[in-house]
Design goal:
Blueprint (H helix, E strand, L loop, with lengths): L2 E6 L4 E8 L3 E9 L5 H5 L7 E5 L3 E2 L18 E3 L2 E2 L12 H7 L3 E4 L3 H11 L2 E6 L5 H10 L9 H4 L5 E2 L29 E6 L4 H9 L3 E6 L4 H5 L5 E4 L10 H9 L9 E3 L8 H4 L4 H26 L1
Parallel strand pairs: 3-4, 4-6, 5-7, 6-8, 11-12, 11-13, 13-14
Antiparallel strand pairs: 1-2, 1-9, 2-8, 3-9, 10-12
Length: 316
């Protein structure tokens, strides 16, 4: 097995075994603590531009199937793991993790002390990193990591959003989602005379969200991220859904404008399903710096103290 080099922007060098595609990649290194679901994580558009560090010990044991994708292909830039399973054993498996990543040009490194590295990211914050699975010298990997512009202020959504609007149709993965009968009144009559109509903004939407919305008999129309508010309202939806997505929201002024235009304050008959659009969750970014976390704790404690004080005053 070939060697792989993972180099962080602070100069940390980690050697391991290469798997997946034989290539170089530069990315924002983040971690994920999930015990299962590596295929869903690797295909989640929220991870675009990021390399995912898995804290769970073994990855690849159930291979890759054709039903559990969150998008049509891997969205991560790299996979960093402790141990790659040498055996694939699952009745739904179509191919191994390494072969799948190779097909899509995504490199991986195994043999990494992922829990140590997770603590490093948790305490020091997310870092830029470079991974080479073709034995590129470490000094060049370090230069790649430090020269990369990073994700802040960059519009990653345009790389993952759909090119044109479409009506969601159930796929192979939909059979694993529980069907929900339409809500009824006490006498058994349907509460609604027709299926709900939902417009979903695709900022990097996960297909499992669409499967669940559809399981409630909703008609879901997915629209590109740059769709204007007027175009959405022209579809006369019952609700608007804002998906999650990758990158920095600061680089998406068009999305902010569109969302503002579809707000319920403008459309009283429209219900709203925000899902923290275009965010990088804390477990994915690592954690904030110790100084930032200390400031947050101080603010939280202050707010809690005020809440308790007002509560005691009210009781007295």
């Amino acid at each position: 097995m070939k060697l792989a080099n993972l180099v962080l922007q602070d100069g940390t060098v980690i050697e391991g075994q290469a798997f997946g595609a034989e290539t170089d990649a530069v990315f924002e290194l983040v971690f994920n603590t999930s015990m299962t679901g590596y295929q869903e994580i690797l295909t989640d558009p929220s991870y675009r531009g990021q390399g995912v560090l898995f804290t769970v010990s073994h990855i690849g044991n159930v291979g890759i199937n054709l039903e559990d994708d969150e998008s049509a292909k891997p969205q991560v830039s790299a996979a960093i793991i402790r141990s790659l399973s040498p055996v694939v054993s699952n009745w739904r498996s179509a191919l191994s993790l390494s072969d799948w990543l190779t097909q899509h040009g995504v490199p991986g490194i195994s043999g990494v002390d992922t829990r140590w590295l997770t603590r490093k990211l948790r305490d020091g914050g997310t870092q830029k990193a470079a991974l080479s699975t073709r034995e590129l010298p470490q000094k060049y990997c370090l230069k790649m990591a430090r020269d990369w512009e990073g994700l802040d202020g960059r519009d990653m959504v345009k790389e993952v959003t759909c090119e044109e609007s479409y009506r969601w149709a159930d796929d192979e993965g939909s059979k694993w989602i529980e069907e929900h009968r339409p809500w009824t009144t006490d006498d058994g009559k349907p509460m609604f005379s027709r299926p709900w109509s939902i417009v979903a903004y695709d900022f990097g939407i996960k297909e499992n969200i669409l499967r669940h919305l559809s399981s409630y008999s909703a008609n879901v129309t997915v629209v590109p991220a740059d769709t204007t508010a007027d175009e959405v309202l022209a579809l006369k939806p019952d609700g608007v859904f804002l998906s999650n997505g990758p990158g920095d929201p600061a680089g998406l002024p068009y999305a902010v404008e569109a969302v503002s235009g579809t707000h319920p304050k403008r459309c009283a008959n429209l219900w709203y399903l925000p899902r923290t659009s275009t965010h990088r969750p804390r477990t994915r970014r690592g954690y904030a710096s110790p100084q930032v976390r200390a400031s947050r704790r101080e603010s939280s404690c202050s707010a809690f103290a005020k809440q308790r004080s007002s509560h005691h005053c009210a009781k007295s």
